[in-house]
Design goal:
There is one protein chain. By secondary structure, this protein is α+β, with helices and mostly antiparallel strands. The protein has a domain of 94 residues: 2,3-Dihydroxybiphenyl 1,2-Dioxygenase, domain 1 (Roll), CATH 3.10.180. It is 20% helix and 23% strand. The protein has three helices and eight strands. It is globular. The two termini are 32 Å apart.
Length: 149
């Protein structure tokens, strides 16, 4: 066994969907660039521009997304996806755009108790997305989230 410690990386979030064609169309409509189209409808890969993982208590995350915590329903499994934005205006634009693409609004955008601005939408399979601008989290020109040390 090697003594070299691997560099951790988080590379793929795989969402289970009920209708591949509809879900592919939804994520393309949101503007994510599909890659490896040779997979057809067996699996679809989208370039998201970068990924960050965050940890948050299950009950608080459910509450923030206005989803029930108990009993733990199949519609919420303690995970949300996030679309970080650079401004309040961008949050509003993204939420409106997602709804126009077929998303359902879970929670209207609002000022948060931590000084940010956030709202939630659900994709066609009810995967919850937070659209947020948060203090101290910068979205660069490279579309990636930059976190302070």
């Amino acid at each position: 066994m090697s003594n070299i410690k691997p560099i951790p990386r988080f590379t793929v979030i795989t969402l289970g969907v009920s209708d591949m064609r509809a879900s592919i169309a939804f994520y393309e409509a949101l503007g994510f660039s599909r890659r490896m189209r040779t997979t057809g409808e067996a699996v679809a890969f989208f370039d998201t521009g970068g990924t960050v993982i965050a940890l948050f208590p299950w009950d608080q995350l459910a509450s923030d997304a206005t989803l029930p915590d108990q009993p733990r329903p199949t519609s919420f499994r303690g995970v949300t996806l996030a679309w970080n934005c650079s401004s309040v205006e961008e949050v509003d634009t993204v939420l409106d755009f997602a709804i126009a693409c077929g998303a359902s609004l879970l929670k209207s955008a609002h000022k948060t108790d931590y000084g940010g601005y956030s709202g939630y939408f659900a994709d066609p399979d009810n995967h919850a997305w937070e659209v947020v601008v948060a203090p101290g989290i910068e979205v660069g020109d490279d579309r990636r989230v930059h976190l302070p040390d």
